[in-house]
Amino acid sequence: MMILSANTQWVLLSTMMLGMAAGVVGCFAYWKRQSLMSDALSHAALPGVIAGFAVLGAKSLPFMLGGAAVSALLGALFIHWIRTSSRVKEDAAMGIVLSVFFGLGIMLLTLVNRMPGGQQSGLDSFIFGQSASMVRQDVYTMIGVTLLVFIAALVGWKEWKLFLFDPQFAGGLGLSGRLMNTVYMVLLVLVIVIGIQAAGVILMAALLIIPGVSARYWTHSYAAMLGLAALFGGGSGIVGTLISTLGDGWPTGPFIVLSATSLFVVSLAFGSRRGLLVTFLQQRAQKMELTRQAPARESVERGG
User: Which of 83, 103, 158, 210 is packed most tightly, with the most Cβ within 10 A?
Assistant: First the structure.
């Protein structure tokens, strides 16, 4: 029986919490048809991380994550500004912000690495994540954010359903679309900020997108999809972390994403609602039914 070290147990708990929170918030992004938003804001967080280090000249995780939050929120504001002040569509605006902010982050990273002590800063780890560096305080933070996400989803249960599926009707009932958008964006940025240490700015987007999409292949129910997405996200975090412990220096983030991808492939193939196998069997049954009814139709037409 494999015995996990104390640090590995903390990492395991933190990645499970991160996956569950990402699954729920990722569902919101999926229903708003803004899955690319999570990708854009994940990449937009990188300049804030580098700037946080550059301002202090030392590695202070709270300060750097605060910079990531500010940078991601700026990215969201730029997306909104481009969409409302020009004829550029939302997906194009997201692509612009993703590219510009990530390019700025890489440029800042290059400059910081040339500073004294920059090479030892470990800033490169924020691109692909470094779960092994997490400590107990990071786990407590992830648990707190995960609970906040769950509370927000439960307290605003009816409001979220109205906002996500029929925003015009929700506005007619007096539900503030601006308030709901703000809460949604804050939750998304929070999950991204706490997740970039584990999964990195590149892979964090996958953790936000894949569990929700996978859950969609199993159910049409709002509640069931949220639950399955949290289950898939948390399970991917556990499996990916355990696999990474099997090798020396194996990165946790990529294995988490690969675990989530494996769940997606299974869901795509065997999902009970929209899976390829179920769709194939339904189409085959329909063809057989049409073939069986064809002689009866022909006799009716001849008799008529």
Answer: 210
